[in-house]
Every structure is written in C-alpha cells, then in structure tokens.
Specification:
This protein has five helices and 30 strands. The protein is mainly beta. Strand 5 and strand 6 form a beta hairpin. The longest helix is centred in the N-terminal third of the chain and has 10 residues.
Length: about 350
Amino acid sequence: MRRKTFIDAVGARARQAAAGLAVAVLAAGVLTVTTSVVPAATGAGASVHAKGGCAARAISRTSTVRIQLEGTSAGRLPLVQVCIDGQGPYPFLVATGAGSSVITPALARKLRLRRAAATSVRGVTCVATTPQVKVKYWSMGGVRLAGQEVLTAGVPSQGMKHPPKGVIGSDVLSRFGAVGIDYHTRKLTVLQREAPAPKGNLYVLGQATAVAPSVLVKGATKASNPLRVFETPTGTIVASPVTVGGHTEQLSVDSGSAESALVPAVVSSLKLHPGGRHVALSGVGCKGTATSFASGAWAFGGVSLRDAALVSMPIAGTVNSGLQGILGADALFAYGAAILSYTEGHVWLTAG
C-alpha cells in the first residue's frame, strides 16, 4: 500500500477543480458529490441531549450498526438511521460512491440548521449553486460523528418506498479506515474510531496483495480488487478496475447507486448492445434521461459478474475525469457483502 500527497498530473487537475467547485454526479438516480469547502472541526467527544432513539456513543474500536435494505427495480440499497442535533432518526442512504454527504433541503429547514457558504455544483446536465448547512452534532446508527458542513440537495428515491432524507458518503465512511456492508445480516461495520478529516489531499493506490481486516470478513471472499482512493478535507472518491468487453475501466464503487453505469464514450467504443430501457436522471437542479446497454461479459478482480443492464451516462467534473463508470448495488448485492478499506486501498466482495 502506498499513501502519498497527490502530486502527479492527475492530482494537480483534481486540486485545481476542487479549489472552489463541488462536483455532483447522478448515477441512475443517485447523487455522487465531491465538495471543496473545509468544514469546521467539532470535537467527537461532545454530547447533546437526544430524543427518542437518538442516544449516541463515541467508539474506540470496531462497531456495528443496523441498516435497512430498500428495494428498487435493480436491487436493494442500504439505509442507516441518522440523528441530527438529537432529533430523528432519519433514513440516510449509505453511498460509498458519494464523495460528500448530503441532507435534503426539507430536513435542513425542519431542523433549522444554520447555513454555510453556497457551493457551485456540477450535475449531470447543468451547473447549479446550492447551499451547505452546518451540522454540529449527529450520529449514524448510534455512532457519534464529528460535526461538519453538509451539502443540501434533493436525494432521488430510485423507486424506494421510503425515500432517504440524506446521504452518508465516503467523506464520513473513510474516516473510519474501512467499512463492511453485509446485505445478508443487514449490518454496517466500521473498523475503528473516527479519525479527523485529512488536512490536505491524499492519494491511496491499493495493492493486489492487501489482506481484508479479519473483523470485517464474515464469509468466503468471492472477488477482490485494488482500490484507488482520493481524499480531500471534505470529500473522498473511490474507484476500482473492472473489465468490460476485454477492456479495463476505472469504476466508482457505489453502494448507493441502484444500477451500474458506463460513460457514453466507453459504451460507444465497446459497441455495447442497447437494452431498450430509458432511465431518468435527476438531482441538484439537473434532470435528464439515459439509455441502458447490455453489459456482455464483464468481470471484477478476474471474477465474472452477472450480466447487467449498464446505464450510459456522463460523469461530470475534472476531479472525476478518471472515472469511466460506476459499479453499483446491482453488482455488490449479488455477492452478499462488500468491504472497502480506504487506508489499504482495496475492496473485497464476500459471501457475507
């Protein structure tokens, strides 16, 4: 495993893009966001009066929280109960492909959260300006989280009966070192206590020989792959190589996207066959439609994935220029569990 300040050409472009722009991508209905405003630090040991089921604790070791799985036409998405300022709990989507966490404007107004600086957001089909709010005290499944500024934006329902009120993204999840999402037992496990956000930009280039944290492995490993992790003070992007039609592409690993996707240029170059289905894209003031294509033979870590309908959609923003698509929950759920190590730069798909 190599961890370094991101100083190569790609890193320079990413830092330039992150200097004053939040990048939002909506993959088959799910918002993926990278934002660049540095949040105010809040002590993880602070306490707040909690109502109902909002008692929270600071953790010092591996901890497990319950998740619920909401069905969509393509698969099931994990939601975790989040409390803010002692109120809630509210269902938030667990989205490893979301660079930054999100709260819906309606919930932000209900909780009377104080506004922070507005941020430019590049969506699928437009550029919009959206406010952020300051969240001082919050928790995820009873695990206390450090305060930060959170983007306010609509969160698409993706066909879920109970739409989420926000998104827990990799900006939060990465601070726990590694996470495991077990679809069989409906549990989210974080490896260690929450660390502070990095003060600068960091790049983790994972190695094929990484070993999964034993406390997160509950079943046989079916497939594994190195993970590229780009961390900034307010956002984290993860990508892993996936072979499609004999070509290797870097795809964002996103537990919060109902369907996997490829950018149009890759779909065209691979000459994938149209699937005959149109998918609505929406969020952060942007709307559009996309066409699905048959995946054909594709593989993760040398292991064949089930045939799938891949959505053809652009991924906007210079900071996302290295991403060629998304490996979504339709692929992850089929295995039973997914483990992402942000510190080691690796992802494992296990039997749960």
